[in-house]
Each structure stands twice: as C-alpha cells, then as structure tokens.
Amino acid sequence: MTGFTVALLLVAVTAGLLRWRRPAWYWLTFGVTLAVLRVAVRYRSVMDACGLTVPPSRWRLALARAANRPVPGPRAPRILRLRPTRTGLVLRLGLRPGQDAFDVAASCDRLRHSFGMYGVTSRELRSGVVELRMTGYDVLKRVQMPAKLERTPTRVPVALREDGAVHYRDYRTVPHALTLGATKSGKSVYQRNLVTELAAQPVALVGIDCKQGVELYPLARRFSALADNADTAAELLDALVSRMEAVYQLIRAEQRITADVPDAEIAADIWDLPEHLRPVPIVLLVDEVAELALFNTREEEKRRDRIITALARLAQLGRAAGIYLEICGQRFGSELGKGITMLRAQLTGRTAHRVNDESSANMAFGDIAPDAVLAAIQISPDTPGVAVAGDSTGGWSRIRAPHTSLRKAVDACNRHAELTPELPELAAFRPVLPSLAPVPEPATETAPAVA
Ligand SMILES: Nc1ncnc2c1ncn2[C@@H]1O[C@H](COP(=O)(O)OP(=O)(O)O)[C@@H](O)[C@H]1O
Ligand SMILES: [Mg+2]
C-alpha cells in the first residue's frame, strides 16, 4: 500500500514539476488526457452555462408528451470531432438551429475558463460548423516549431501562432510585406528567421541594411547582393528595376499568343514560364527602412526620391517578375515624406511587433484591422518577438518567431552558400567575402641565440 502511495506521490510531483518547468512536455504526458476528460465530462453543463444551448425542438416536445416521457432538456452543439494536438485540442462543433458562429466567438473567453485551457479561439469552417482551437499552455512563451513543416521555394514557416498553428510567409499569395516595431521588439530576429528558412530554398536574397550592415553582412555568403548605406542602396534598387524590366521582356518573348497555344500556357508571370527559362525569384530584405527616407541636404533629398520611387515601382510591378519585398522599420508613415503611404499600400502582408504608440500600430493595421492595433500596443516589452500578424483570411493573430541566434543563421547561410545565384545585373553589389583560405599559422619566433 505504501509503495502505491509513494508511486502516486512521485507521479504527482513529476507532473507538477513538468507543468511548471516544461509545459510542452506536461501537455504531451498528462495535460492532454486530463483536458480531454475535462471537456468530455463538463461539456454539456459548460455549454449550458455559457448560453450556447437551444431549447428542444417542437417535435421532440410533442414526442415526449405523446410517449409520456419527461420533457427533454436544452441541447448543446453536437461534437463532430475532438482531436488532441501537440499544443492543445481542436473541437469541431455542429451548431443547432438558431445558433451562429458569433455566439461561439463571443463565448471563447468563458469557454477558456470553464475548460481550464490557456487559450480558445473559434472560426467558422462552413455554414453550421465551427472549429474551436484550444491551447493547453502558453505556446508563445518558449517557441518550439513542430518537427514536420511544409516548405516550398516561396512558402516558408517563420513563426508560431498563438493557437499553436504555424505562421507561414507565402510569397505567391502575399508578395510584399511590412514589419513594424519599436527598437528591440524583435524585427531583426524575425527577419533573420526568414533568411534562415529562405537560405535552403532556390531563391536569390538581396539585402539593404543601413545599420552599416551589422544584421545582414554576417549572412553575406547566401546573399546575391547587399548594400550597407543609402548611396549603394539607391544604385542597387535601380539595378533591380532594370532586372525587373528585363524579366518582363523575357515573359513577353515567351507569350506567343496564337490560337493554338492552350490558355494555361500563356505566360503572365515567371511561374508560367517553362522551368529552364524561369528567372530565379528574388526576395529583397530591407532593415530599418526609415534610414532610406531621411535626408539633410539637397543631394540626399534627390537620392531619397530615387530610392522611394524605385521601391514603389518594385512593389507595384515586382510580383509577376518574381521580386518580393520584405520591409522592416520602426515607423513607416507619411511623416517620412511623399510616396511613403503609396508604397505602404502595396505592402499587403503586415506584421507589427511591440510599438510605443497607437499611430505606429496604425501604420500597420489602421487601414485593414482596427482591432489588431490595440493588440499590437498591448504586447509587453518582456516578450520581444511577439507580434500581431495579418493572415490570408483577413483576420489576424498573435505570433512569435523562434529565437534564432545570429550564429544559427550564419551557419544556415554558409551551409547553403552554393545555392546563391549569380545575378549579372547585380554583380556589382555582390558582397566581398573574406577568403576561406586557412589562416596561416603565426610564424614561431625563434629564440634569439644568446651570444
Ligand atoms: N522571437 C524572439 N524570441 C525571444 N527573444 C527574442 C525574439 N525576438 C527578439 N528577441 C530578443 O529581443 C532582442 C532584440 O531583438 P531585435 O530583433 O534585434 O530587435 P529590433 O530589430 O526590433 O530592434 C534580441 O536580441 C533577442 O534577445
Ligand atoms: Mg533591428
């Protein structure tokens, strides 16, 4: 008997320790079973308490009366599926007549407390079916990406979402993106993650880093072109615009619209070209974009206009030529001068890290999702890397990128250095790499002969 008590005590202590130090392991070992039991046992009473039940239908009442049975109680949404996941539970509900998805969405916080979960979000799958995604613990506290991730050349995983799903950066559906955030909020780490993922894909990376290149130069082996000051950036952007024009010429030459060419084979962007002709897609990463838009002198003002015009042209026309923009900055609003808001309107994908004021958050979400603005201001300074990101459905969610060290990013870039394409138009901006020749041993000094 005492043996059994000791074993029980040990299990309880282990569970407590795991829950405290390693919530992810706790979830996989104890948490998931307890949560499934809790949901199964409490389901009806919780739904009733949350006002998610409907009175029995007329024919049920009539049937009960005819058979002289007790009056049936109110009915909760049907559970269509209960699926445990790595981070929580997914519950699929079939709504009863008279209920709507908004009822469920409005009750998410109540459900979270009632089922003892960390987070609950809901979304409509199709009419009459709502999915509740519950997380068992704070998945953004220590981000661990799932082991199995989908990767294609233009779609890479970059962060974990609050509901445990993976946040992807998909260049085919969202060609250009803007990432805002106060200083030290995690923008560069986010960008570093992106570079680490893209390094393994057959894409060309081009970088503009006006912080004298401290963020991107260590990763130079995987970059086809880099600029570390505004003057070089202006020339680099002009070169990119000429490349874009050349790609359009190529697409036009390939179009050959005659009656016998099948519709599906008419090329309108690089992905329609046959593989052997297809130019390599380019991702242009810009860190601290405001540096490019600031000026003191007349000369610098001219340079600024040139840069903003080139960026706006790339944003407007770049997608079909396979040129994608990834712009990071602290603020990106009209106070940076003319052309900025027009450029911003072209940047579809929005991510806001912690910002200091509402107007900065408005630059990311004011024009698309006003409730995301509030969420971006509420991010705590203690959790750098947490951000609010718009998703493809027009909604938004909180995300956090894994904490990728510069060392890890450098290793990934060096490992895939041979994937770096040579772009003839940008050859002048190819970063000069320190030669990898082994450092010669310092000559051993021979002790002077004692006379
Ligand atoms: N996703 C993250 N997870 C954990 N820590 C992070 C994350 N992103 C950033 N940090 C921390 O915040 C610090 C500042 O991040 P950084 O990307 O350099 O900010 P920014 O470029 O916005 O000024 C980093 O040194 C890192 O310690
Ligand atoms: Mg930075």
From TrEMBL:
<feature type="binding site">
    <location>
        <begin position="181"/>
        <end position="188"/>
    </location>
    <ligand>
        <name>ATP</name>
    </ligand>
</feature>
<dbReference type="Pfam" id="PF01580">
    <property type="entry name" value="FtsK_SpoIIIE"/>
</dbReference>
<dbReference type="InterPro" id="IPR050206">
    <property type="entry name" value="FtsK/SpoIIIE/SftA"/>
</dbReference>
<dbReference type="InterPro" id="IPR002543">
    <property type="entry name" value="FtsK_dom"/>
</dbReference>
<dbReference type="GO" id="GO:0003677">
    <property type="term" value="F:DNA binding"/>
</dbReference>
<keyword id="KW-0067">ATP-binding</keyword>
<feature type="domain" description="FtsK">
    <location>
        <begin position="163"/>
        <end position="362"/>
    </location>
</feature>
<protein>
    <submittedName>
        <fullName>Conjugal transfer protein TraS</fullName>
    </submittedName>
</protein>
<dbReference type="GO" id="GO:0005524">
    <property type="term" value="F:ATP binding"/>
</dbReference>
<dbReference type="InterPro" id="IPR027417">
    <property type="entry name" value="P-loop_NTPase"/>
</dbReference>
<keyword id="KW-0547">Nucleotide-binding</keyword>
